Structures are given as structure tokens and as C-alpha cells.
């Protein structure tokens, strides 16, 4: 009886692997795509900016190059969509989950579900505020506080030795998102070195060009003297430039502009003198992410924090760099 049962079981297993070999994606053992490929579920924030578009392309291209099967879900800027996508990845028993959290808070429950299912999670680009850091394997991305500090330091240097108040308006990224929180903090802490530098208005533009423009219009209407605009990304800065020009002012001259990202459109405006300084934030996280996925899948334990290398650009540097810009 026992013997007959085990023979039957072998049959089931063989049938199972034959089906998997026929391209079935539903691998009930949870150990891959059925054709030996690692399956990665990735939940993206959305398509709010040039940075995000470049980031999505980098992840899709490098998954392909690495031979990793990518299940890609676009959350359209909504946390609830990301939670649904992660739950669906768990049900599908993907090998690894990666995601770029739209906001920092509210992830503990779903991360715990992934952990209980034995699926490792990699944070890409943005952090979560979970106290229990065992809920994710690593966080791969930029240091946004450092970016805010670099933006602030450039401004401090510009006004060194000068007197009189400098009125700054700030376009924040998505409320509650790690890059918005940290870029605001790094900048504010650094400009505190010069009491003349004052943030007179600060509001979210949700990282989009359209909202950057709308909010800048209201800033221009309500604030008689604006010397500086600090925008948490290029897209909002580019939207604001439209508003500044429509108000009859010269961006980069009448109002100094600092942004973050350094995507091609931002770098073009910088080289044309419409933006004064850009702090780079690289969206090309795909190759590093795929390396980490492979490492995790083969039982390795990557560093808990993997930082991206980045620089800054002046108008002159942008002219030199622009022809090489990939995104
Ligand atoms: O700076 C912005 C995007 O999370 C670093 O999100 C990313 C930010 C990036 O929408 O343009």
C-alpha cells in the first residue's frame, strides 16, 4: 500500500513538473516560474515624473537582461493599490517582492504577510517607517536627506557675505513620501546656517509638472517677492517655470531655481539658464536591484542599506553632461 502510494506521488510530481515545463506560470511549490527563472513581483508608485518613467524602464530592461521574470504592477500613486499588488504577489507565490512605497507609513501588516509566506521583500527607491526592520531584506536607493542638504548648501554658498532677507518658496513632493520628508528636512537644516534665508511658502506639488505649475501660480499671486524656488523634483520645477514665465518673470534670473533628479528635461532647462542648480537622484536602480534579487534568492544576505552614487550639476556642468544623459 505504502509503496503504491509513493509511486502514485512520484507520478503526480512528474505530471506537475511536465505541466510547469509547458510554460504554466502557476507554480504551486512557490519555487520559481516553472522554467527555472526567478519570479520578481514589483509594485511601482506610478508614472508621476520623468524620474519614475526612467526608473520603470531601468527595472524592466534589467530584469530582461538578468533573465528574471518580472510581474510589474503600476499603483497609480495609491497605497491601497500597492497593498493589493503585494497581496496578489504573495498569492502567486513569487520568489521575491520589491516595491517603491508611495508613502512611508502603513506597511507593517502586508509586510508581515509576506514574511509569514516566506517571501523576501526589497525596498526600492523609497523607505518605510516600520520599526521592525526584519520585515524587509534591504533598502536600495538614494539618501534623500543628503540631497536636501546639497540643495541647501548651494544656496548658503550663493548668499555668503550678502545681506538682506532671501525669500524662498518650496514645492514639496508627495505628502508622506520619503523623498518629500527628507528633502525638506535636509534643506531646512542646512539653510538654518544663514538666518537671511527664509522659507516663506511650502506646499506639495505631488511630484508632477501640472501641480508644480498650479501651486507656483498661487505662490506668485500671494507672495510679492520670491527670490528662490526649491522644488523637490525637476518636473515640479519645470511646471513652475511655465508659471513664472506666464507671470512675466525670468526663471533662473528673477527667481533662482534649485531642483532634484537631473532628468534630461531638467538638465536642458539647467543648461539654458532657467534652472540654477540640480541635485542628482539616479533612477537607474534596475541593475543593482536584479543583483540583490539574485543574491537573496541564492541564500545570500545583502547589506541592509544600499546607497546609490550621485552628484550635483551647475549650469556649466549640465552643458557638458547633457549629450550623455540617458534619461
Ligand atoms: O525624485 C521624483 C519621483 O522617489 C526618488 O519620485 C523618487 C522621486 C523622484 O516622482 O521625481
From TrEMBL:
UniProt keyword Repeat, yes or no: no
CDD domains named among the record's database cross-references: PBP1_galactofuranose_YtfQ-like
SUPFAM superfamilies: Periplasmic binding protein-like I
Chief localization: other
Top-level lineage group: Bacteria
Residues in the signal sequence: 1-20
Residue span(s) of domain Periplasmic binding protein: 41-299
Pfam family, one: Peripla_BP_4
Subcellular location: Cell envelope
Similarity comment: Belongs to the bacterial solute-binding protein 2 family.
Full protein name: LacI family transcriptional regulator
The species this protein was found in: Paractinoplanes durhamensis
Amino acid at each position: 500500500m505504502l509503496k503504491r502510494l509513493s509511486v502514485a506521488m512520484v507520478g503526480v510530481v512528474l505530471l506537475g513538473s511536465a505541466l510547469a515545463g509547458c510554460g504554466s506560470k502557476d507554480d504551486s511549490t512557490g519555487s520559481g516560474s516553472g522554467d527555472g527563472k526567478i519570479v520578481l513581483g514589483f509594485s511601482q508608485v506610478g508614472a508621476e515624473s520623468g524620474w519614475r518613467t526612467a526608473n520603470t524602464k531601468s527595472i524592466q530592461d534589467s530584469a530582461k537582461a538578468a533573465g528574471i521574470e518580472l510581474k510589474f504592477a503600476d499603483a497609480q500613486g495609491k497605497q491601497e493599490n500597492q497593498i493589493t499588488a503585494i497581496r496578489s504577489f504573495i498569492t502567486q507565490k513569487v520568489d521575491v517582492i520589491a516595491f517603491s512605497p508611495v508613502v512611508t507609513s502603513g506597511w507593517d501588516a502586508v509586510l508581515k504577510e509576506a514574511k509569514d509566506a516566506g517571501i523576501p521583500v526589497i525596498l526600492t527607491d523609497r523607505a518605510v517607517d516600520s520599526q521592525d526592520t526584519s520585515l524587509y531584506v534591504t533598502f536600495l536607493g538614494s539618501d534623500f536627506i543628503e540631497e536636501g542638504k546639497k540643495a541647501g548648501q548651494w544656496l548658503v554658498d550663493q548668499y555668503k557675505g550678502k545681506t538682506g532677507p532671501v525669500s524662498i518658496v518650496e514645492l514639496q513632493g508627495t505628502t508622506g513620501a520619503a523623498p518629500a520628508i527628507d528633502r525638506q528636512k535636509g534643506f531646512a537644516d542646512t539653510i538654518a546656517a544663514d538666518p537671511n534665508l527664509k522659507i516663506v511658502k511650502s506646499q506639495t506639488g505631488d511630484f508632477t509638472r501640472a501641480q508644480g505649475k498650479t501651486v507656483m501660480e498661487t505662490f506668485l499671486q500671494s507672495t510679492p517677492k520670491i527670490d528662490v524656488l526649491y522644488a523637490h523634483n525637476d518636473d515640479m520645477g519645470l511646471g513652475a517655470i511655465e508659471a513664472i514665465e506666464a507671470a512675466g518673470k525670468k526663471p533662473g534670473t528673477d527667481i533662482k531655481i534649485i531642483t532634484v533628479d537631473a532628468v534630461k528635461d531638467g538638465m536642458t532647462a539647467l543648461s539654458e539658464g532657467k534652472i540654477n542648480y540640480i541635485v542628482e537622484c539616479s533612477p537607474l536602480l534596475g541593475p543593482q536591484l536584479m543583483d540583490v534579487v539574485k543574491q537573496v534568492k541564492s541564500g545570500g544576505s545583502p547589506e541592509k542599506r544600499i546607497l546609490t552614487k550621485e552628484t550635483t550639476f551647475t549650469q556649466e556642468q549640465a552643458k557638458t553632461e547633457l549629450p550623455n544623459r540617458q534619461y
